[in-house]
Design goal:
The complex is a heterodimer of chains A (374) and B (159).
Chain A (H helix, E strand, L loop, with lengths): L8 E5 L11 E7 L2 E8 L7 H5 L8 H5 L6 H16 L5 H29 L3 H22 L8 E2 L2 E2 L7 H25 L2 H7 L7 H6 L4 H6 L6 H4 L25 H25 L19 E9 L2 E9 L7 E5 L1 H12 L5 H10 L4 H5 L1
Helix pairs in contact in A: 3-4, 4-5, 4-11, 4-13, 5-6, 6-11
Chain B lengths: L2 H29 L30 E3 L9 H5 L5 E8 L2 E10 L8 H5 L5 E3 L14 E3 L5 E2 L3 H7 L1
Antiparallel strand pairs in B: 1-4, 2-3, 3-5, 3-6
The chains are: A alpha+beta (374), B alpha+beta (159).
């Protein structure tokens, strides 16, 4: 019998691999088809956004927050705006608050649609991704009518929002969320989520126990997928989330073990429904007219001090740590993102899985590469 | 047949059934008319351009109305990436705008310059098709010759 090579082999995956959600690189230590470990190599998309913040005025930094997580730019805008407003003690008009929440939750739907579709695309199902993109197109049109841009919205401003609602915005939004809630999700589930082949690829893969998730500082849907009921919108409400009634979906081992890839996937599906509920309430409560922006002084300078504010983005908790020395631009701005924390656990959960399963694990974390590096 | 064997065939049966359900949905969209995607830009319809596709507030290329610009340079300062270059010179008694360049290849269409403009001289157009062979073509010079700056308040006094 011939002698087989049994030593460890090191393989490179990425940085330009179709299923790594951007420019991500993994170094795989493999033993045949089984994997010993996958070590992420990050930093390909580092743009120095935190350093840029120290060089531009407070208001001018807003377009850069779009680029932290380009799939959910309105949520990042909101996080930064809330941070500066709390530091400077700026009151914002009520209508602006509602418009912000509607924009942020619409963005969450749009982002989850891409996340769910891309995961299925990674596993070889092309059709559901196209279906998800079709719905995202409606969301893009809504945001374009609202603020003029389709991807990098730059809608929220310090002290309010940039535009008032366009005519017939409420009807169009209601129609969109009705369609998503009543028609699209059921159809999408039948098309993909309840497909036996898909379920068998997702269950019992990449299992993260609740203790492990908390130890590794997982945030957002990845944490909730492990059964930990924690949502910044509920536990530490910012903006007007305390006025709105919604549930926090958690994983409970729907088809397999608690905290597997399918649970993380299913939490995102449920979150789309919850976002629809939030938008419907916000549309009902929003005042018909009113101011949308508090005017800042031309050379806006917040008082000296430091603050840390966390907000719930589609990929988990996004924290802004801001130090102000009383100048026209921040002294230091640190941004903490959800994708970065989930990178750390990949090398642990990827031990002993097949190479093909790694794609499912990466996809289930819904990683966006620019958010990892910033 | 053992339990294992039964489960094996049951699994295959379920996989085929659920895939068939998905295929049904695909088929539904396949026969549905009209198609969701349209070919760009050939099938826009008669007399319509690509600019008719976008909404009212669309943030496209920047455009300038030189008769309104007062040369306050606020847009230049608000721009986070310095893609606007304005020069105001004094020729004789009057102030003239001698240069107003917008580098559209750098511009990130954030809209901060349009917001700060006090007279509405700089606005967004709906143009978004910026593909060209030389990146220098995207640096748009809005002024061919010096234009005296607008003085809206002075005009009112004369009236």
């Amino acid at each position: 019998m011939a002698h087989f090579l049994t030593e460890e082999m090191i393989l490179n995956m990425g940085p330009h691999h179709p299923s790594t959600h951007g420019v991500l690189r993994f170094i795989l230590q493999t033993d045949g088809e089984m994997m010993r470990r996958a070590v992420p190599d990050i930093g390909f998309l580092h743009r120095g956004i935190e350093k840029i913040a120290e060089l531009v005025p407070y208001q001018s930094f807003m377009p850069f927050t779009d680029r932290i997580d380009y799939l959910a730019s309105a949520c990042c805008n909101l996080g930064y705006a809330v941070t500066v407003e709390r530091l400077a003690g700026i009151e914002i008009p009520e209508k602006a608050d509602y418009l912000r929440i509607i924009a942020a939750e619409l963005t969450r739907i749009g982002s989850h649609l891409i996340g769910l579709g891309a995961l299925l695309l990674d596993l070889g199902a092309v059709t559901p991704f196209v279906h998800a993109l079709r719905e995202r197109e409606t969301f893009n049109d809504l945001m374009e009518a609202l603020c003029g841009a389709r991807l990098t919205h730059n809608y929220v401003r310090i002290g309010g929002v940039s535009h008032d609602e366009p005519p017939s915005f409420r009807e169009k939004t209601r129609k969109f969320i009705d369609h998503i809630e009543n028609e699209f999700i059921d159809e999408f589930n039948e098309l993909a989520s309840f497909n036996t082949i898909f379920i068998n690829r997702m269950v019992n893969v990449g299992v993260i126990s609740p203790e492990q998730a908390i130890e590794h500082c997982l945030v957002g849907p990845n944490l909730r997928g492990s059964g930990v009921k924690y949502d910044v919108r509920k536990n530490d409400p910012y903006s007007i989330y305390d006025r709105l009634d919604f549930d926090v979906p958690v994983g409970h081992g729907k088809f397999g073990t608690l905290g597997d890839c399918y649970d993380r996937y299913w939490v995102r599906v449920e979150e789309v429904r919850e976002s629809c509920r939030i938008i419907r309430q916000a549309l009902d409560q929003m005042p018909e007219s009113g101011a949308i922006r508090t005017k800042l002084t031309r050379a806006f300078k917040p008082p000296k001090g430091e603050i840390y504010v966390r907000t719930e983005c589609p990929r988990g908790e996004m924290g802004f740590y801001l130090i102000s020395d009383g100048g026209a631009s921040p002294y230091r701005l640190k941004i903490r993102t959800g994708s970065f924390t989930s990178m750390a656990i990949i090398s642990e959960v990827s031990q002993g899985v097949m190479v093909a399963d790694l794609v499912a694990i990466i996809g289930s974390f819904d990683i966006v590469a620019p958010e990892v590096d910033r | 047949m053992t339990n294992e064997g039964v489960r094996y065939f049951k699994n295959i049966r379920e996989a085929i059934l659920t895939t068939a359900k998905g295929m049904k949905i695909t088929l539904k969209y396949w026969v549905k008319e009209p198609a969701i995607t349209i070919e760009y830009p050939d099938r826009l319809g008669k007399g319509r351009t690509a600019e008719d596709l976008v909404s009212e507030r669309y943030r496209g290329f920047l455009k300038l109305d030189p008769s309104k610009c007062i040369g306050c340079l606020q847009c230049m300062r608000a721009c986070p990436i310095d893609c606007i270059l304005i020069k105001v010179e004094k020729i004789g008694e009057e102030r003239y705008l001698t240069r107003f360049d917008v580098d559209q290849s750098k511009c990130m269409y954030c809209g901060l310059c349009v917001e700060v403009c006090p007279t509405g001289a700089i606005t967004f157009s709906k143009r978004f098709e910026g593909a060209c062979y030389d990146i220098g073509e995207l640096c748009i010079k809005h002024l061919q010759e010096p234009v005296s700056v607008a003085r809206p308040k002075a005009k009112k006094k004369e009236e």
